[in-house]
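Q:
My hope is that you can spare some time for a protein that puzzles me. I hope you can help me see how the letters and the tokens relate. Thank you; the sequence and its tokens follow:
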Amino acid sequence: MRFDIITIFPEIFDSYINESILKRAQKSGAIKIVIHNLRDFTLDKHKKVDDRPYGGGPGMVMQIEPIVRALKKIVPRKSASTKIYLTSAKGKTLTQHQAHTFSKLKKLVLICGHYEGVDERIRHYIDGEISIGNYVLTGGELPALVIADSIARLLPGVLGDEESSKDESHETPGLLEYPQYTRPENFEEHRVPKELLSGNHGRISAWRVRHKKHQ
């Protein structure tokens, strides 16, 4: 799967996408992440990508022209296997179900919003807006990373153990993952539950089911 991310701060992504699971996923060919600097798509000599809002008001608004110019290069021909989303506090909140839906795509384009928002006419060029929670962030770069990470780990071959993602929090609606323990068995009189030490897979499974947390 390919992720194309449009941003005015491309350097923000360097560290995160080149470490851990995302690094291994790219190296294995399971995913490809391409970062596009929006300023490369403006015709303004100062590489300006924002302007004052019509009607007045505080702050600046991201211009439609450079974004659409970038989209036309990244997605010259739209297909059902490609989706384009704007990261926005007004967008639909990302869920595990939505991450699974995205993971079926061949390409996901993410536009990182900034300032007071993006020219409303962007709606004619995208499939939707997406948020990672009911709060406001400085920009869309962190949401783009969260979205890419949540999707990538669902793809075949990305996690070391294919069973790892099947019993995680949010995979079953309303349930969170059971508690986990590792060595030492006894730490400052806080002991690992005896069921997990029994070696009896039935008892272990039953314990884990009982201790799954409800949202």
Helices lie at 13-17, 20-28, 64-74, 96-102, 141-152, 201-210. The two ends are 31 Å apart (CA to CA). The chain has two domains: 2-152, 175-214.
